[in-house]
Design goal:
Elements (H helix, E strand, L loop, with lengths): L22 E6 L2 E6 L10 H8 L3 H13 L3 H13 L3 H13 L3 H13 L3 H15 L2 H13 L3 H13 L3 H13 L3 H13 L3 H13 L3 H13 L3 H14 L4 H13 L3 H12 L4 H13 L3 H13 L3 H15 L2 H13 L3 H11 L22 H14 L9 H14 L9 H9 L3 H15 L9 H17 L4
Helix pairs in contact: 1-2, 2-3, 3-4, 4-5, 5-6, 6-7, 7-8, 8-9, 9-10, 10-11, 10-21, 11-12, 12-13, 12-21, 13-14, 14-15, 14-16, 15-16, 16-17, 16-18, 17-18, 18-19, 19-20, 21-22, 22-24, 22-25, 23-24, 24-25
Length: about 475
């Protein structure tokens, strides 16, 4: 059973070391366990330390447990930490929580974490809350400990609260906790605040939080700020943040593809190729396709065929179309060309269907496929349109909600720009289009409204995938009614 706010579960083995101990992986009796850095510390022979620990000094008992742990004697360490914790040593209580969590006894771990949390240990409170959610589904108690930890400075606890509030639809509270988390260094929450700001139509706030995350080394924060700047036609700053995304994550395919597109727009083919091939190396389909197209322009036909073949094999209609052209024009391979044209045409690619008709010598107007598919949007897409579409998918799919497809959103945006091209500025576009196409005016108005939401977020709720599917039918019927494909 899934509960809200539990999508970021704690790892099975905690990712922080025991207090006061350097941790590394070691092999014990053939089993990999969490060990300790052996710095030559011997099991204590200091009679004064041992005597103090036995006499009930909690700090001495904690230090003694730490020394045993550093030598790998975890059981002796546990015994001394138990003495120290029972005498009030918070670090020992925390270490015992880690010890039991690693050894598969979560109930005991929760008891020790609760002891440490009750003494004001924020990390113990956070870990206790995570176990309460994951092991007992105890939301009220877990929330109380998360709030305690967050107020005591735990960025991770504040972030978890922000996610809980998002799942509950309480965006105001979510913002409060995400801000607290971001200011404690949680760059993921800074990025999330950017997404929330963009979804609400506040692009200034979105840009500020994404830049905060980007300057801290968060790759997605830098990338999404690049998309926002490109949507606003600020290519220079977009380039800066795409590069920052690549600096944070050297194989970021989206940033590499966007930088390739910017270089291609300047006709810098060598730079464009380098970026597209970087994206292609990760298996990114757009990168594969564009690397192939640029290689064709550079006369590198064999390399172009390699990249286009990989993209076409990944079911990319545009790549299949270009691969078909390459096979026919460069190698006279009509069989291969026919195969890839058919594959693209079966996905609704208009130009591929035309080429297939020519290869098959079909009479003009005769469909080369028995069951023609819905049209594939193969018209040129502006960088601003694709950036808006990608940001819309990001914002509408927040917290695992179903999101529409990016290409579908591009088709909606592009259709409207296509059909109003050439209309007089003072004309009523909806009335004119309804009269010319035969579609009902309300359907065309709905298409216009969804497009406006994609370009100006916050003006209306994000369209659902079902709404997008309905509007796509309208867009295609409208183009057909106007004699456009």
């Amino acid at each position: 059973m899934t509960f809200v706010g539990t999508t970021e579960a704690a790892p099975a083995r905690p990712d922080i070391p025991l207090r006061g101990i350097q941790v590394r992986e070691v092999q014990v009796q053939g089993v990999q366990v969490q060990g300790v850095q052996d710095q030559g510390v011997q099991v204590p022979r200091d009679a004064a330390l041992l005597a103090a620990a036995r006499a009930g000094d909690p700090d001495a008992a904690h230090r003694l447990g730490r020394r045993y742990a550093e030598r790998g004697d975890r059981w002796a360490a546990r015994q001394w930490w138990e003495r120290a914790a029972q005498a009030g040593n918070v670090d020992s209580a925390f270490n015992l929580g880690i010890w039991h969590q690693r050894h598969g006894t979560p109930s005991e771990a929760m008891s020790w974490y609760e002891l440490a949390a009750g003494a004001g240990d924020a990390e113990a409170a956070f870990r206790l809350a995570v176990l309460l959610l994951d092991r007992r589904d105890d939301m009220p108690t877990a929330r109380r400990w998360l709030e305690t930890a967050a107020e005591d400075g735990s960025g991770r606890a504040a972030r978890r609260l922000g996610l809980l509030c998002e799942d509950e639809g309480n965006i105001t509270a979510a913002r409060h906790w995400h801000v607290k988390a971001a200011l404690e260094g949680e760059l993921r929450s800074a990025h999330d605040l950017g997404v929330l700001g963009y979804a609400a139509g506040d692009e200034t706030e979105a840009g500020q939080w994404w830049e905060y995350a980007a300057r801290g080394g968060h790759a997605e924060g830098a990338y999404h700020l690049g998309l926002l700047r490109q949507a606003l036609r600020d290519d220079d700053r977009a380039r800066t943040f795409y590069r920052l995304a690549l600096r944070a994550r050297a194989d970021h395919p989206g940033a590499a593809c966007r930088l390739g597109g910017l270089a291609l727009a300047r006709r810098d083919l060598s730079t464009a190729r380098a970026y597209f091939e970087l994206a292609a190396g990760t298996g990114h389909v757009d990168g594969l396709r564009m690397a192939g197209i640029v290689c064709v322009e550079m006369g590198e036909r064999a390399v172009a065929g390699h990249w286009l073949g990989l993209a076409a094999a990944a079911d990319d209609p545009e790549a299949a179309y270009h691969l078909g052209l390459l096979l026919v024009s460069e190698h006279g391979d009509l069989t291969g060309g026919r195969h890839w044209f058919r594959m693209a045409a079966a996905r609704g690619h208009r130009r591929a269907a035309s080429e297939l008709r020519a290869v098959l010598a079909c009479p003009h107007g005769e469909e080369p496929l028995l069951y023609p598919p819905p049209p594939y949007w193969d018209r040129p897409v502006t960088p601003e349109q694709s950036a808006r579409a990608e940001l819309a998918v990001l914002a509408s799919g927040r917290r695992g909600e179903p999101a529409p497809g990016e290409r579908d959103l591009i088709e909606i945006i592009g259709t409207w720009d296509l059909v109003i091209r050439g209309l007089p500025e003072q004309a009523d576009p909806i009335g004119r289009l309804a009269e010319t196409s035969g579609l009902h005016a309300t359907s065309i108005e709905h298409l216009c409204s969804v497009r406006a939401t994609l370009l100006r977020p916050g003006t209306a709720p994000w369209p659902t995938p079902a709404e997008v599917a309905h509007v796509l039918v309208t867009a295609r019927d409208l183009r057909k009614g106007l004699g456009l494909r």
